[in-house]
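Field log, afternoon session.

UNIT: design team B
ACTIVITY: writing a sequence onto a fixed backbone
BACKBONE:
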């Protein structure tokens, strides 16, 4: 397989998926019926959902990827199943096998959309119309042409999170005011994540993050996307090259910026606040995105609340720009601070469960937490500080 073509296909698929996400969210009168409650998320201590968009996007990616790369489509793994039941009990199975027929798809969608022909037609259009990736902020498609690499057809798998930060998508609220260049919650925090990994080593190879609600035209009320991508494999690195300008901090501010989840314990928050400028934002994908854009130096998560589908795509992008994603529990104990480049062995892998004995719904958790970084030069200082402050925070939890 031509790596450049695979990358271009994934970028296009991410924007096709963004069109689906916007089409489903557009119909506010119908939308609340298009949300299915999942089991209460005990790890994050909050409700969990899936929507018609989640299911449709995952199967759309599988189908259209299969048209170009049939084997890759057979290796798509994701958060969602292909079934969905709306609030009124209407059930739909959106499998790749029925995707070749737009008419059949429209008929299936009509049932779950309460017979709304216009809404079904709009969603079908989003699924089957070739996306205009040039309208997507930062897609940098010309940069993919520089990738000169051939990939073995049967050596790669794909992790997909069709909609990360589903709770923000469901609430549909406007994004909170920017804090150090980062939105703390709201639609801006929703992302679509498509990551490729090596089936022999488990290493991340390429990834695409699409932010479908990046910018809204106040005249037309139409949202447009931002797309960030990266590839790191066989000695080659390429990426979209998008960076945001980090706001000027007051002289009194702590120089290193760490982005985190608001669900961290108070003890951990207080410990990290002592050494870092901390930002608490929604959505794992959005926190990773903020890191790749240069708005933070590290993303730290002390608990097992993310999955392989959350981290595969961002991990590949971070490796492309000189960073990485490590198992936090291993970093705190085993990191070699003299030769930081030797710590690649502690990075997350995507082939095997971290805990093979875990229940089926938890086996793909990133069990040791996350330490993601954008620049290896800063890693030594961050880990040194983390060892102390995390120990203090964990000690407070024990007291």
């Amino acid at each position: 397989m031509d790596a450049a073509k695979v990358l271009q296909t994934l970028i296009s698929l991410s924007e096709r998926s963004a069109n689906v996400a916007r089409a489903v969210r557009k119909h506010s009168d119908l939308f609340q019926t298009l949300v299915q409650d999942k089991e209460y998320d005990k790890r994050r201590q909050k409700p969990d959902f899936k929507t018609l968009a989640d299911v449709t996007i995952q199967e759309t990616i599988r189908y259209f990827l299969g048209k170009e790369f049939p084997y890759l489509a057979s290796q798509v793994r994701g958060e969602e199943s292909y079934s969905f039941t709306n609030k009124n009990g209407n059930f739909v199975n959106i499998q790749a096998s029925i995707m070749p027929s737009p008419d059949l798809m429209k008929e299936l969608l009509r049932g779950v959309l309460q017979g709304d022909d216009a809404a079904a037609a709009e969603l079908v259009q989003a699924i089957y119309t070739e996306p205009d990736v040039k309208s997507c902020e930062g897609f940098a498609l010309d940069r993919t042409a520089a990738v000169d690499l051939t990939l073995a057809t049967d050596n790669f798998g794909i992790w997909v999170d069709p909609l990360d930060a589903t709770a923000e998508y469901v609430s549909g609220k406007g994004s909170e005011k920017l804090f150090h260049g980062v939105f703390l919650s709201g639609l801006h925090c929703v992302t679509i994540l498509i990551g490729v990994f090596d089936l022999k080593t488990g290493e991340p190879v390429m990834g695409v993050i699409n932010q479908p609600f990046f910018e809204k035209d106040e005249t037309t009320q139409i949202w447009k996307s931002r797309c960030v991508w990266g590839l790191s494999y066989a000695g080659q690195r390429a990426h979209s090259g998008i960076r945001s300008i980090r706001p000027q901090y007051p002289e009194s501010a702590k120089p290193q910026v760490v982005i985190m989840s608001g669900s961290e314990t108070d003890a951990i928050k207080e410990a990290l606040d002592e050494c870092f400028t901390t930002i608490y934002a929604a959505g794992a994908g959005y926190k990773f995105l903020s890191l790749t854009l240069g708005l933070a130096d590290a993303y730290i998560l002390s608990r097992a609340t993310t999955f392989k589908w959350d981290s595969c795509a961002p991990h590949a992008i971070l490796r492309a720009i000189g960073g990485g994603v490590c198992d936090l529990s291993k970093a705190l104990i085993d990191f070699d601070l003299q030769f930081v480049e030797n710590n690649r062995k502690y990075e997350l892998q995507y082939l095997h469960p971290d805990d093979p004995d875990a229940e089926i719904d938890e086996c793909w958790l990133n069990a040791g937490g996350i330490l993601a970084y954008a620049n290896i030069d800063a890693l030594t200082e961050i880990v040194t500080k983390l060892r102390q402050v995390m120990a203090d925070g964990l000690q407070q939890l024990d007291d």
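LOG NOTE: The first helix runs from residue 3 to 26.
NEXT ACTIVITY: expression trials, pending approval
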